[in-house]
Amino acid sequence: MPAPSTYFDLIDTTFDFPQEGIELKQGILHFYSINLMELIRKYGTPLRVFYLPRIAQQIQNARHWFHQAFRRYGYTGKYLYAYCTKSSHFSFVLWEVLRHNVHLEISHTNDLAIVEWLWKKGWINQDILIIANGYKERAYAERIRALYQAGFRNLIPVLDDINELEYYEGLEPPIQIGIRIAAEEEPTFEFYTSRLGIRPSEIIPFYQQRIRNHPSVRLRMLHFFINTGIQDSPYYWSEFSRALEMYIALRDLCPDLDMFNIGGGFPVRNTLRFLYNYEEIVDEIVSQIHQRCAQENIPDPHLITEFGTFTVGEAGAHLFQVLGEKIQNDAERWYMLNGSIMQYIPDTWGLGERFIVLPVNYWDKPYQRVNLGGLSCDAHDYYNSEVHLNHVFLPILPENPQEEPLYVAFLHTGAYQDALAGFGGIQHCLIPAPRYLVIYQDDEGQLHHWLFAEPTSSEAMLNLLGYHQDNPLPTPAQSRTPAGTYEQILIQEL
Ligand SMILES: Cc1ncc(COP(=O)(O)O)c(C=O)c1O
Q1: 125 is in which domain, residue-wise?
Q2: pLDDT digits (tens, 9 = 90+) for 123-139
Q3: pTM for this prediction
Q4: Looking at the 3D structure of the chain, how many domains does it have?
């Protein structure tokens, strides 16, 4: 086969292309049928795009896979989809997920401020299931108590530590609680056991001695989550089975226990050669639980998931312009982007995450291997390897500077980036955040654009840094900066 000559040929011969939500029409990359060049012409770059209907599709997909497996095995519990808010706290994300009747998983007292807002706004009612995870500061536990007493009867604190139980003394009627089992870490990790949750050997005695006859709590849920996500690996299945055996042992003692929460951990497509088989994994999870429960003669638990990445990841994209090309030696060619990769998509340098990176235009041009460079001066502000290609290839740049520049899209960047980078604040080299565009669908199926945030202005940045009228530091009586011409300043230095 001759070597592919254009960028399109490269993708066409290397991957199964087009794919769901990623296609080429009239030579332009489309994201869920949206012409990205049109967005760029209208809103400029750098641009962060959220396409909310994808969130709805993902929720429906997961429900479909679980319900299908439930039917296959005659599973008698229910499937409950909870959204893990930490993966994206934006109001528009909560709006979309709540339109699809999901429950919530939260991690901090400030999440409960969001819950109160949602309730006042009428987006939720008080019966929503809220799973409160995390090691609890007093303020968090007190807010849980307050909301419970205000009528949120399905607010379930998941004990991360045995001492947390004390926070729930005296609640009437008894509050439903969960216990998080501490997982063993992956063999390559620095620690043996996760710091999150209660160590397995303590759980049964803790239940027997302190929970069983406790007047203010009822144990309803066993929670299990591992950092590396749900993978078809011996490590995952061995941890899953340890948690399932713990559920069975606890259920034997505690007839109230009826929820098995397997946390988050579904991945999103981070390469065009994504081989993860969601249906098979769900099938295996459901069949293992059902089989073991049948053997032990206990009812199938209600199965809860807390997908964060999976819910919002594929809804997001970042669009950049390539400002220019730098060739630093015979092998290293840089495409300089008009934003910061390290800052906008911090997963890439902090966690080594990979995303689908594609050009928006010029698919008909020859391609070359490049490194993508961000605008900050940090050596780590770069991106240069796809999951399968181990390189980034992009079309060559137009020769004539009058021609349209090359634009590049990072796809499926919807989860965690804003939380890790700190939305709206001061960032590296004072590079402003990108413009944020939200595309949402109304009940009639009509798509709308909401220009959610402008790039951070220099005024806003200066204000945050204390360059404002209320700055209390005294003005020096006379300026202490050296004065004069460059030569005079040098003399003063000497
Ligand atoms: C307890 C818990 N549940 C759910 C999640 C969401 O995980 P993911 O984004 O992989 O679905 C997390 C992520 O850290 C978590 O800590």
Answers
A1: 75-307
A2: 999 999 999 999 999 99
A3: 0.95
A4: 2
